[in-house]
Amino acid sequence: MRSAPPFLVDRFATAVRRVAITWFVFAAFLGVGGAPGAGHYAACAGGGITGENMWRWKIFGPVWDYAIASQPPPTDYYCHHPWGVFWIEALFIRVLGHRDLALCLPAALMSVATIVLLSHLTKNAWGTVASAAATATFSVIPIAVSFSNFNELEVMVIFGITLFLHGLERFLVTKSNRFLVSSLVGVVFATFGDWPGFILVGCVLTVSLSRIAILPKRLLPRVDIEGYARWWALSGTITAMSLGLWVGAFQKAGKLADWLGAAAGRSSGAEVPLRDVLVGRAFWIESAFTPLVIAFGKLVVPLLVLRFVLLRRETEFFALGTLVAATIQYVVFKQGADIHYFWPHYFALYAALAVAPFVATIEGIFGWVGRRLGRLQIARGFTFVLVLAPVVLLLPDAPRTLRYGRETGGRFNEHGNFIRDDLDMVHALRWIAPNISESQQMIFDSTSIAGWHTAWALGRMHYNAPLPPSLGPHMTPTPY
Length: 480
Fold this sequence. Notes:
single chain; mainly alpha; globular
C-alpha cells in the first residue's frame, strides 16, 4: 500500500532543510586545506604539531612544540582540557601526513555531521516545519558558520552533544540498540572533547533520573523502564570513567595542580558584575549571534520551561540542558571568554534546539485554529512563512561573518588591536625549510611572531631557541 504523499508545506520545509545543510557544508569546507596563519586558527596548526609528536615519540599526551632532542616528559603534556580533539587530529595526521588538509578536515566533518543530526533530531521530535526552522537557524548563526572548520574543543563537543541527544531521542522511540550505541558514542565525544560536555550529559542524566524516581507513572509518557535504565546506567558509567581517565592522566603527568590552576585562572574576574562584562563584550556577542538571535534566546526560556513541565519529555529538556552548559562555560570562566571570541559557540546549538519547540508551539496553536476552520494546511503554511521570516533576515550576516572570521584568523576585531595573518611569513618559511637542517635554528626578531603556524610551516624545526638580546624578546605562542 502506498503511503500518502507529503503535503506541500512539508515539501517546502524539506527543501529548506536541504538548502541549509548544503550552505553549511560549503561554509565548513571553505578554506580546508589552506595554509594556517596567525590568530585563533593557528591553534589548528598546534593540533597538527601535537599529533606529529604523538606518533614520533609514541606518547598519548599532547605536546604543543616540536621536541627534537628526546622524548618529551609527561610534565610537558597540555593538561587543561581532555585530549580527545588531539587524538582525533593525530589519526588524521597518521593518514594524511604533514599536510594542511589534516588540520581542519576533522572539524569540517564533525560540523557537517552535527547539522545533519540536528536536522533529523528536530524533525523526529517536533516535526518538519520545526526542523526546517532549527536547521536553517543553525546554518546562519554567524559564530556557527565562522568556526565550522575550527578544529578545537567546541566543534567536537557540539558534535558529541548532538549525537548523544539524537541517539537518546531515537532510542526512546524505537528501542533499537543501534541508537543506544550512537547515544553512548555521543557521550564519549562530548566528554573527551571538553568540560561542557560533562555538564550537558550530567544535566540530562539528572533530569532523567528525577523524572523516573519522583513522578508517578501516570504522569510519565510511555517509557520502557528496562531500556531506559540500561541507557542511563551506561551513559553514567561512561561519563564517570571519562572523568576518571582525565583526572588520572593529569595526575600521572604531574599536572593536576596545573589543571586546577588553569580553571582558577580562566574564572578570574568572575566578581565583576555580569552586566558590565556583557557591555564590554557587546560587539563580539552581537556579531557572533546578531541581536535577533540574542533576544529570542532570552525570551524563549519561559516557554521551554513550561513545555518541559507540561509535557515531561526528555526532548523538551534538550535546549535547556544545552543552555545550562553554555552559560556555565561563558559566565564562570570569564577570563577565557574575554580572550577567545569563540567561547560562546555552544549558544548556537542552544538557539537551534530552542527554535524547534518554539515553532512546534506556534504550529500547534495555528493548527488548532486551522482544524476548527477546516483549513489546517493553510494554517501550517502560514506558520511556515512566519517562522522562516526571521531566518531570512539573518541570511546576509552569515556570509559576511564567514569572510570576516576567516580573514582575521577567527579574531574578528580583537578589541581594536591590529590583526595580522602572517601568511606571507608562512609561505616564506615553507620556501626556506627544505634548505635548512634540523640541527639549525630559526631566530625571530621582535617584529615577528613565532607561533604554531610558523612551527607547522617549518616542520620539525626547533624555533624555540633563545634570541640574542639585540634582536629583542622571543614571541611564544599562547596555549589554547
